[in-house]
Amino acid sequence: MKRQLGIFVGVAAALLPFAAAPRVFAVPQGKMDYLTETEADKIRDTMSPGDRIKLYVSFAEDRLTKFQYELTRQSPDRRKDEMLNSLMNAYAGCVDDASDQIEVAKQKQVDIHAALKIFGDKGKTFLETLAKLNQGSGPDFDSYKETLEDAIEGTKDAMTATEKAQKEMLPAPVRRKPS
Predict the structure, then answer these.
(1) Within a domain: residue 2?
(2) C or N: which end of the chain has fewer Cβ atoms within 10 Å?
(3) CA-wise closest residue to 140 among 88, 65, 92
(4) What is the pLDDT along the chain (179 residues), one digit of tens a residue?
(5) How far apart, in whole angstroms, are the C-alpha atoms of residue 26 and residue 24?
(6) Which pTM does this prediction carry?
(7) Domain limits at 42?
(8) CA-to-CA distance for 20 and 18, rounded, in angstroms?
(9) Residue 27 domain-assigned (yes or no)
(10) Alpha-carbon span 110 to 57, nearest angstrom
(11) Residue 11 is assigned to a structural domain of this protein
């Protein structure tokens, strides 16, 4: 009996570190601070890195459009500076996360050529819009200048990663009909 108890205690002690493993190694399921709850759910529900890239690009486009709207809105708002910086940071976060999905696709060897094309095309448009915003016109420019410069750098880095992935990633295999 003592021997069985000793074995049980030994096995329990050996398994104790694994009891905490799910909490230690679990992927955080919390909402990203720049995504709405609905957007975060869409990302979690989407398994394909290519589809996630498309979602992040659409979210980035939405943030940039909202930024432009807030910039041109005439009604006085004492928190306008905060809103502009928040939207630009959210845009940059979406672009960074889209870029991160390229690495995920490489690791999983998933074909994301269609998503890379969309990301590349939208990225060029994003850079053009950001360059216009960076020309420094308007009374609020100084309040978001640094955030804008960070967003430009992040977008350039993402475009470099996209171009590199388009060159490196092999096309999907072509299935041949049996003869």
Answers:
(1) no
(2) C
(3) 88
(4) 555 545 544 444 443 333 333 322 223 344 458 899 999 999 999 999 999 999 999 999 999 999 999 988 887 778 989 999 999 999 999 999 999 999 999 888 889 999 999 999 999 999 999 999 998 777 788 889 999 999 999 999 999 999 999 888 766 566 777 76
(5) 6
(6) 0.76
(7) 37-168
(8) 5
(9) no
(10) 18
(11) no
